[in-house]
TrEMBL record:
InterPro entries (alphabetical): Endoribo_LPSP/chorism_mut-like (IPR013813), RutC-like_sf (IPR035959)
A Pfam family it matches: YjgF_endoribonc
Domain Endoribonuclease L-PSP/chorismate mutase-like: 9-131
Protein's name in the database: Endoribonuclease L-PSP/chorismate mutase-like domain-containing protein
Length: 152
């Protein structure tokens, strides 16, 4: 028996934060032709630092998962229910890292694993890319933007 995304949140004991507001002049999300594009989100609480210097890969994983909670909060606030998500389409991560850091993919797994847990393998499997960044807004360890297919 497949559980809905909202049921999975409850089963996992996840309480989403209040959806964060845009930090500048842009929208939290835009829906075009059944696709919902979420602006870049980072972990709440404003952690800072670079992977490979002040932060470990394991800490980055936790921060990527926290960024996922921010994305889910925006989805839920914008759609009224996560159950309106048909599919996670694309995820792109920007990891604030030193030039010699090479485990970007392991950091972004924190985000991807959360989406798979909430949406399940059929809806949660997604395309993705991850890049190392020289710097990111507010010196956050990671920022993730994402695209979802949603019900009209």
């Amino acid at each position: 028996m497949n559980m809905s995304a909202e049921q999975n949140l409850q089963r996992l004991g996840i309480v989403l934060p209040k959806a964060s507001e845009p930090a500048a002049k842009y929208a939290n999300f835009v829906i075009v032709n059944g696709l919902l594009f979420i602006s870049g989100k980072g972990p709440s609480g404003h952690p800072s630092g670079k992977l490979g210097a002040a932060l470990t890969t394991e800490e980055g994983y936790v921060f990527a998962r926290a960024a996922g909670l921010e994305v889910l909060a925006v989805l839920q606030a914008g759609l009224g229910s996560l159950d309106r998500v048909k599919r996670v389409v694309k995820v792109q991560g920007f990891v604030n890292a030193t030039p010699d850091f090479t485990e970007h993919h392991k950091v972004l797994n924190g985000f991807s694993d959360l989406l798979m847990e909430v949406f399940g393998p059929d809806q949660g499997t997604h395309a993705r890319s991850v890049l190392g960044a020289v710097s990111v807004r507010d010196n956050l360890p990671i920022i993730v933007d994402s695209i979802f297919q949603v019900e009209d």
